[in-house]
Specification:
This protein has 126 residues and is mostly helical. The protein has a single domain, classed as Topoisomerase I, Chain A, domain 4. Helix content is 81%, strand content 0%.
Length: 126
C-alpha cells in the first residue's frame, strides 16, 4: 500500500528530527538551535498527519480504529516533546533575563561614586 509507505517515511523523518531535538535539549544547546529544530519537528508532524489522512481514506472501519490509535500515539509523543522544548526555551530566556539584570546591577555598582563622609572625625580620643 503506497499510502502506508508514504506515511511510514514521513514518520521516520519525524522520529529522526524528534530525536535530534531531544538530544539538543539534553545537551543545553542555544535557544536559537532549539527553536529551529522545533520548527522542523512541527513541519514533519504536519506531513505525517497529511499522509495519515490520505491513508485512512482508503481503509475499512476495523483498520481505521487501529490507524487512529497509531496517529493518537504519534500526536501525544510529539506534543510532549513540543512542550518540553517550549519549556526549555522559556526557562532559557528567563535565565538570560536574570543574568542580564545581575550584570546591569554589577555595572551600576561599579560605576557609582563612593559616598562622601560628612561627619568629622573626633580629633581627640577620651
Amino acid at each position: 500500500m503506497d499510502a502506508k509507505k508514504a506515511r511510514r517515511n514521513a514518520k521516520s523523518s519525524l522520529t529522526r528530527r524528534s530525536n535530534n531535538l531531544y538530544s539538543m535539549i539534553e545537551n543545553n544547546r542555544p535557544v536559537e538551535e532549539i527553536t529551529e529544530a522545533l520548527e522542523l519537528v512541527e513541519i514533519d508532524y504536519k506531513t505525517v498527519v497529511e499522509k495519515h489522512e490520505a491513508l485512512v481514506e482508503k481503509v475499512d472501519d476495523e483498520e481505521f480504529a487501529k490507524e487512529e490509535k497509531w496517529i493518537e500515539d504519534c500526536r501525544e509523543k510529539t506534543l510532549i516533546l513540543k512542550f518540553r522544548a517550549k519549556d526549555y526555551i522559556l526557562k532559557s530566556k528567563q535565565e538570560q533575563v536574570t543574568q542580564d539584570t545581575c550584570a546591569e546591577n554589577d555595572i551600576a555598582k561599579k560605576t557609582q561614586k563612593p559616598k562622601k563622609i560628612t561627619e568629622k572625625m573626633p580629633t581627640q580620643l577620651l
